[in-house]
Fold these 3 entries.
Entry 1:
Amino acid sequence: MDIEQRILDYFNHFHSHPEVSWKEVETTKKLVEIMTELGIQHHTFPDVTGVIAEIGDGPEVVAVRADIDALWQEVDGKLQANHSCGHDANMAMVLGALLYLKDETLTKRVRFIFQPAEELGNGSLSMIERGAIDGVSHLYGVHLRPIEELPFGQVTPALYHGSGIFLRGKITGVDAHGARPHQGKNAIDAIAAIHQFVKSIYFSPFESYSAKLTHIQTGGDSLNIIPGSAKFAMDVRSQSNELMKELQQKIEDGLIAIAKLHDVEITFEWTDYTPAAEVSDTAMQIADAAIRKTLGDESTAPPIQTTGADDFHFYTIRKPELHAAMIGIGADLSPGLHHPDMSFNHKALDMGARVLANTVKSI
């Protein structure tokens, strides 16, 4: 069987067996099965999912990372795990790169990091803590891109992801009878104020950012009770790590002011922070040359700024001297990442695998 077909078979398997963050047990078993079948040195962990494999010899270590978790979302009316995130494709492309490289004479070690829990924004930290980038000089990730960013046949040497974080909050007021609103402290009034407040936050329009409510839970089945308590959540994004700090401070100040205005208690916590990209020019230039060598100048796209986030960038935040970049693969992907019906041109998988392999060989 040729490598392109094997890559497609890998994709089809992972696509048909999605598992959500930290529960990628069968995915990990399948990766171990593949490594064993190929005779590739590998190891797993007793306390978390994921696999690290390595080929080649020499003192220098370069690495390639694939995220392995799926989303939990409604598909055709049913809540289920679903690889609309494209991580099934990322695994297939990285495995394809391994296939292209495993019989080459390598003067360095190539480490393959199959990382759990990217969708929660902290799976990379678990790999860092377990030595995944110890001794690594260069690190590459890979990800399919939506069609509005990159069409099929185009590949970019670097994705400049933005920063993302969630806020989870609780409002504690006082319940009251619907006929006696003056006796209560209505949590919905505070929720409405929070909604209006986040829409009035302004920074320079030359850098993208957003803050929006994504979850509200309050009240019960009795419509004559004014609810005193509510839970809410926000999704907050910015193109840089510096602006994210300013945005968080602005939101915190606003929540404190709203609590005082409505005489309620508002408690909150920030969770699942994902940093903005810190791209190495060296890594980007190596990938650019590899794309040109693999696919030609006409298929080499410039770096892309994207509002999405990826915990890949924790690797460089925790190890600033690491030369890292995430390669973006055009695949005519639509309607979009995280859409339950996401689809793409599967021929992009082999393209991504070959670009990755040539990038690693070029170091």
Entry 2:
Amino acid sequence: MSTFIPGIELNRRFYEEAVRPLLSQHFPALSYAAALIGPGSDVLGFDTAMSMDHDWGPRLLIFLREQDTALIPSLDKILRTHLPHSFAGFPVNVMEAADEPGITQMQQTTKGEVNHRISLQTLQGFLQYRLAYGGEQPPTVADWLTFPSQELRSLTAGVVYHDEIGELTALRAQLAWYPHDVWLYLLACGWQRIGQEEHLMPRAGFAGDELGSALIGSRLVRDIMFLCFLLEKHYAPYPKWFGTAFKQLDGATALQPILWRAERAASWQERESALCEAYTQLAHMHNATGITHAMPETVSSFHDRPFRVIQGETFARALLEQITDPNVQRLRTRPLIGSIDHFSDSTDLHAIGHWRAVLRELYE
């Protein structure tokens, strides 16, 4: 097997040199889109040599118009019989992993049909599977708040190699970022979470519960990081790549060593000191956006207790005051639960789209 090549580049070549010529020869009138989007470390640009052990290799998504779906069996047959058995030194043929149903691994073959990883489908079918969203109408507020950030990143990351039908490019532009007032609401909910727990971390430590204090501290670190993604208008990926993607944010240069100090703190006092420094930096980042009036960038006492806080709820109130969309304003009168990313870290809830029908009821 060849030396590792980033999946985005490998599959650009795979499309240009192996797939596109076949489609042009056998289906010259076919309009389609070809892309590498959806789940996968290669889509996010975080794949490494270790990624090659599963769900990696020459692969593409081919999106067809609804009226051309009858061609899928013929298209699949051409690809199975005419694709090379290897490309750029990597097997094109795949098999299902024996111990993990649904997971594929490259398998070298030299003859017979190729069991390829080129997905042939409509964009609408793909959206229904990934998001339980058809794409016929713009997303509603409830849609945006129940779309997991990791799914939005996987749909807007990667690369489109060809889009003759235009739908995929238009969809990615539509999903590129939250509507302004939804964004303000999410920022407010992020600050509210900090305001609800920032005083609990030192209180637990003060009561002699260092483990509990550290656990709350880690929750606060995660909330700070997620707010940074929101402030810089980048969707956060799923947990494996959360920290890696965070390091690419502008604010990470200053914040990462501070947050790492909070995570490694041996006492609640050290943890509080690091978190207060992080709150100050986060408040500075907030003010730099100009989305509200200038907010305090210094910590203060939590009432008459010996604990220091940034008073995250005051940032939340300032953000909520900027919301003008009546559909988002309605949510101001309810507890600020935020989006699915705020109130759940369930893998299945984030990865399986059909839960959205139930979750939407939280906002409607």
Entry 3:
Amino acid sequence: MTSEITLFVNPTAGRGRGAHAAQPAASALRAAGFSVRTVLGQDADDALRRVREAVEGGTGALIAVGGDGMVNLALQAVAGTATPLGVVAAGTGNDFARALGLPIRDPARAGELAARALKGGHGTDVDLGRIGERWFATVLASGFDSKVNDRGNRMRWPGGRFKYDLAMLAELAAFKPIPYKITLDDGETREVEATLVAVGNASSYGGGMRICADADLTDGLFDVTVVGDCSRATLIKVFPRVYRGTHLGHPKVTTYRVASITLAADGVTGYADGERLGPLPLTAECVRGAVRVLAPLPAPGRKAVHSGLP
């Protein structure tokens, strides 16, 4: 293993926290004896080109400094390779770092843990989702939540997360259940009316919303959460339970555990790791052990499967 480490930095993550997090993370790696090269990039395409070159050139590790969007971009370079991925969580959501048990907004500690894993030859192989050639780490979202994202992304005011709160209120006022066609790995297509369908490789999205609370990063399977045809009143009542994961016991919620899934619904956009993928239909497969992460072994989720769709 080369002693040169590539630090992949999003300086705008978390309203500038990414830029501030890079220095203490780099200092911790240098203190451990590693040479650190920083990659920024003029834009996402340029940044990805640069980190792919670093991976192909044999960098000892790629360490993403930022949020889940930055992790998602890094995955496009390291997934399926022998290059390990480290995460210095400095974004807004940080759901992948949370799933790995890594520190949130403590870049020096995150750098120390990455250095320790590299020096000891330790790491954990975890699963990833793949849609065509695109990889994702946490959750593929579709339905009500993706419509909120669509609306929030179109809003120029206000800034920050508050605009997504406003977007949620607007979508609640206009929301109607969505007709889905869901094809699981048994080959049968189910037609359902649903509020949302979330496909979880990891358990949470949106900064700790445990939509697929039992998801296990090492079991080779997705946990799929289908929230049925809720009324607005029911959705408002159930929504706070998502942060604890207790929504999975609600009668309007059904879960599956599958290796692959196809989602189809008119007028619905898919998002993964908070990044826009495009309109449904989308087919996702879970690829076991697709990336080695510089992190402790994640605690496995509960294996029991709830009742399926009719």
